[in-house]
Design a protein that fits this description.
Elements lengths: L34 E6 L2 E4 L2 H9 L5 E2 L13 H6 L9 E3 H17 L4 H11 L7 E4 L2 E4 L11 E8 L9 E6 L24 H6 L4 E8 L2 E10 L7 H5 L7 E11 L6 H7 E11 L8 E3 L1 H11 L2 E5 L2 E2 L2 H11 L3 H13 L2 E5 L7 E5 L9 E8 L13 H13 L3 E8 L19 E7 L4 H10 L1
Parallel strand pairs: 1-14, 4-11, 18-19
Antiparallel strand pairs: 1-2, 2-13, 3-13, 5-6, 7-8, 7-12, 9-10, 11-12, 14-15, 16-17, 17-18, 19-20
Helix pairs in contact: 3-4, 8-9, 8-10
């Protein structure tokens, strides 16, 4: 058997971040925290933004469900942020078309709840009316209003206006219009995963009881919202943590809208049409359909954080699951979980950052330090065998399939590795029912390289 030649990992040319830590565990123990996750549809999801930042920045665990890898999804349009950078308002900026899509999504959820079109229209019109901007610039300083969602009957609706045909993005003018109707403060009751979308009821009910809101819990495609039109009394039994949660508060966005203005009106209608200039303005509104960025962990990553590091607690409903229960549940969800986790645990302990290798037809991809710094060095296939390298292989490879897999790996500048997890022949299934079985497992790595006849012949000719 030929001796393997180890190639150094290929570093990425452009690196835009600093390396913090290989694991989300503080060595001194002062800043150690236990993150929380939950099982939803056989997936392990982390919701808390602080936990998401902790797990991904320190070890690159998980993947953002709306992002490519790092959970940095934002509803804000980057091109509009650059265009309106002179406003210096820390709020998402979206187009009117995108905002209307969110309104339609909220409308479809209300329709699924059985509400009639008249009620839905009233709810959405109430919720999406223009609001007062929470942050305004005066003399170069930012001023904060008393409340983003509390307004009197004669408050002003502030809009950021600009003329797109002549301005470059720095000239921003403020125009104000008086409003006749006021808005109540949005009630922050309910589970932290939900938030109020609409305040319903007649005007008499609104004046008599500001604490009554419509509350219907809705869920669609993993995006959570709360809406409804049946009044419910606030019992005050919600915890203060739920009220202070970021997901509880309504999301305010700046919507870029267009309006037509006549700069030089003339008698001739053709000239009038030519002189019509579209003006753009930013209007503050509530987002009727919030989209949350969550961190999704693979089963191997989740179990490693629980079992090896002890920095994660996984809940199913309101009950935290034990290590043995997680081992049992994950093995039922994924039949080859024991094999892939043993390989994941082994390579993580060696300092590699394993990620899912499904894109290249393998079980794992091995990165040095993390995906932002280096390209993946190895594509790994894990197999559980006995002392004689025999056993029910998960993926029996023929010469044809092995050659194709090796060619795919080499074309991606990686190397194919077969990781054999060798267990004693006398190990019973009962011993495999706990993660303690890993103490008796041995690991054999085998790097598969393609033999090129012409290269071999030229090397012999040199001698």
């Amino acid at each position: 058997m030929a001796e393997a030649v180890f190639h150094p990992p290929r570093r990425k040319r452009r690196v835009f971040e600093a390396y913090e830590s290989p694991f989300p565990v503080d060595v001194g123990g002062k800043d150690f925290r236990i993150c929380q996750a939950e099982i939803i549809n056989n997936n392990v999801i982390v919701r808390n933004p602080e936990d998401i930042e902790q797990l991904y920045n320190k070890g690159y665990f998980g993947k953002g469900i709306l992002s490519r890898s790092r959970p940095v999804y934002s509803i804000s349009d980057p091109s509009l942020v650059t265009k309106w950078q002179g406003a210096n308002i820390n709020m998402p900026i979206i187009t009117s078309k995108k905002y209307q899509c969110h309104v339609q999504w909220a409308k479809s959820i209300l329709q699924e709840q059985g509400f009639d079109d008249c009620s839905i229209t009233k709810i959405l019109e109430n919720y999406t009316k223009p609001l007062e901007l929470p942050f305004l610039e005066e003399d170069g300083a930012e001023q904060t209003s008393n409340s983003c969602n509390r307004m009197g009957p004669n408050t002003e609706n502030t809009e950021l206006c600009r003329q797109s045909s002549t301005d470059t993005g720095n000239a921003v003018a403020l125009s104000c219009e008086n409003r006749n109707e006021g808005y109540k403060k949005a009630c922050l009751e309910g589970d932290p995963a939900f938030y109020p979308v609409a305040v319903c009821g007649s005007k008499e009910q609104e004046q008599s009881d500001l604490k009554e809101i419509a509350e219907v819990s809705c869920q669609k495609h993993g995006f959570l919202m709360q809406c409804g039109c049946k009044a419910k009394e606030n019992t005050g039994q919600r915890s203060s943590e739920a009220i202070k949660s970021k997901e509880c508060a309504p999301e305010y966005v700046l919507v870029q809208e267009e309006e037509e203005g006549d700069l030089c009106p003339e008698d001739d209608s053709a000239h009038v049409q030519e002189n019509l200039v579209k003006k753009e303005k930013l209007v503050c509104r509530r987002n009727p359909f919030r989209i949350f960025e969550y961190l999704q962990l693979t089963l191997e990553e989740a179990f490693f954080l629980v079992y090896a590091l002890g920095c994660l607690s996984i809940y199913y409903g309101e009950e935290p699951l034990t290590i043995l229960k997680l081992w049992e549940i994950f093995s039922e969800v994924k039949p080859n979980f024991k094999t892939t986790y043993m390989a994941y645990h082994y390579f993580r302990s060696k300092g590699w950052v394993p990620k899912v290798g499904l894109k290249y037809g393998t079980d794992l991809l091995l990165y040095r330090k993390g995906p932002p710094f280096y390209h993946a060095s190895y594509s790994v296939i894990a197999e559980l065998v006995d002392d004689n390298f025999e056993g029910p292989l998960r993926r029996p490879l023929s010469w044809k399939s092995l050659s194709g897999l090796n060619r795919t790996t080499v074309n991606a500048s990686k190397e194919l590795m077969l990781c054999y997890l060798i267990r004693p022949s006398d190990m019973s299934e009962k011993e495999m029912s706990t993660p303690e079985c890993m103490k008796k497992i041995k690991v054999q790595e085998l790097i598969v390289s393609r033999w090129v006849s012409s290269r071999e012949r030229s090397e012999q000719d040199e001698f």
